[in-house]
Specification:
two-stranded antiparallel sheet; 16 helices; about 45% helix; about 15% strand; elongated
């Protein structure tokens, strides 16, 4: 069975490579987590899709997928699930993105809602702000009307629930039965409304295949007990199953943790990716308790590179060296980061400091380093391959057969040296294997949200219609500025 599946996949990939011989590349988009800020990604996709389609048209690649890989964490996973579901339904990326926008703005089925003015004015703290803000000479440190609108909307959602996103779990707050300290009470919510909203636009299970020229969906969550990022994948493994394997690996026993889902990435995986600690309780899947993927990798660049690499090594080319007439596709990556990486005017108030802290924690902290490391690995592989070729030529030019045999024996011994991968599953048994399978990361384009005007620490919970529309416009505008070269 394994050989048949592998042959089919390899045949499909060969066909794809032949069809795109001019480009020999695949395209991945990475959608980071950020709650309500995910609306920004809709705007980015609206603009980016048009620019990439124009680029493909100019290169004669009209029939290629807009994105071969759609990867996301938390709200990025939810956006990815809707996008891929809608593409599978319509086979039209533009329509899929339009439906993704409806996921956010549709008044009946979408995420957006808006508390009434009366609801915002219900608290004493709003009255205090309103009283001070109406003074003729309002102090500069007092929040603007827009910042206050956002702040008090999020406050209302937190204590009363957001209709399409979360609802209060009773008792509220959940009392502290351990220390009996009010400071340790738990204000916990249910994500059932969010689940229902997602299912208005996304499939309950998403299974895709390269043979059908369908995009690969990657979703990331954290196993709270293991403290490890787990990847849920819409593509099958070499044995034609869908499963997530993680934890310690031995060649005898395999991985210590295996979660199977032959029907595809499902709504539980999507919800697990967005299960923010403290706000939600654990999401339990097959006895494993999961938290939001953003805790360990909110911008899962490294995980995408690893998944891409593993797919080719473990599934498409399971026996290194036996397929020498095919180049692995190059990979270009587009990253949409929702948390501003820089902030020139650092805040001094408590809410502002919390906001800046959150951006640093959930921003893109590692992908630049991972990108440099991938470039370094590629350069070293290219160098070693050229030295191998040079050595073979040099040995062949020796006049004495005895010298050739001696050097060839030494050369083959080097190539046959075991690679240091005893604890890993992948098919890199020798140094020679390391040279036969690799790909090039050719491009990384980052679209990063940089807006700090009227920002609040609870911005990820601001699902008001006005803010969501502002974020969509902001993303569309930013995506026009970034260079795609």
């Amino acid at each position: 069975m394994k050989e048949k599946v592998t042959d089919n996949l390899l045949s499909a990939q060969k066909d794809n490579v032949v069809q795109s011989k001019k480009t020999l590349k695949q395209r991945a988009i990475i959608l980071s987590g950020g709650g309500a800020l995910g609306a920004y990604q809709v705007g980015v996709l609206k603009t980016l899709s048009k620019r990439l389609r124009q680029q493909d048209k100019e290169k004669g690649d009209n029939d290629r997928l807009l994105f071969d890989i759609v990867a996301g964490t938390s709200i990025g996973a939810m956006n990815g699930a809707v996008l891929v579901s809608q593409y599978l339904e319509t086979r039209d990326w533009q329509v899929a993105i339009e439906q993704l926008e409806q996921f956010w703005i549709n008044k009946k089925k979408g995420l957006a809602s808006t508390p009434s003015k009366q609801e915002l004015e219900r608290t004493e703290v709003w009255k205090k702000w309103h009283e001070v803000s109406k003074k003729r000479n309002t102090p500069s440190y007092v929040a603007s009307v827009e910042a206050a609108r956002r702040y008090y909307s999020v406050r209302h959602y937190y204590f009363h629930g957001a209709p399409k996103v979360h609802e209060i779990l009773k008792p509220f707050p959940r009392p502290d039965l351990r220390f009996f300290d009010n400071l340790n009470s738990w204000f916990i919510h249910s994500s059932e409304p969010l689940k229902k909203t997602i299912l208005n636009f996304a499939k309950r299970q998403i299974a895709t295949s390269p043979e059908k020229n369908e995009p690969r969906l990657l979703v990331f969550a954290v196993d709270a007990a293991e403290g490890e990022t787990v990847t849920f994948d819409s593509y099958t493994k070499a044995d034609n199953s869908r499963k997530s394997e993680y934890g310690k690996h031995t060649k005898k026993k395999g991985y210590e943790n295996v979660i199977k889902y032959d029907g595809g990435v499902n709504i539980d995986h999507i919800m697990a990716s967005g299960t923010l600690p403290e706000f939600y309780d654990y999401k339990v899947i097959d006895g494993h308790k999961f938290w939001d993927g953003g805790l360990l990798s909110n911008t899962p660049f490294r995980e995408v590179l690893q998944a891409y690499h593993e797919y080719w090594v473990d599934v498409v080319l399971p026996q290194p060296g036996k397929v020498n007439n095919i180049d692995l596709p190059e990979l270009e990556v587009y990253v949409v980061n929702l948390h501003p990486p820089k902030h020139q005017d650092l805040p001094t108030d408590h809410d502002g400091v919390l906001d800046r802290r959150n951006d640093m924690i959930f921003g893109d902290r590692t992908s630049h380093f991972d990108q440099r490391q991938q470039f370094l690995v590629t350069d070293l592989q290219d160098f070693a391959t050229q030295m191998k070729d040079l050595s073979e030529v040099a040995i062949s030019k020796l006049s004495k057969e005895s010298d050739k045999k001696i050097l060839n024996k030494k050369f083959e011994k080097i190539l046959a040296r075991p690679a240091s991968n005893k604890d890993f599953k992948h098919q890199y048994d020798t140094y020679d294997d390391l040279l036969k399978i690799h790909y090039k990361l050719t491009k990384v384009v980052r679209i990063e949200r940089t807006e700090y005007t009227d920002a609040i620490s609870g911005k990820t919970g601001d699902f008001t219609a006005k803010t969501i529309n502002q974020l969509i416009s902001e993303g569309a505008k930013d995506a026009t500025k970034v260079s795609l070269k």
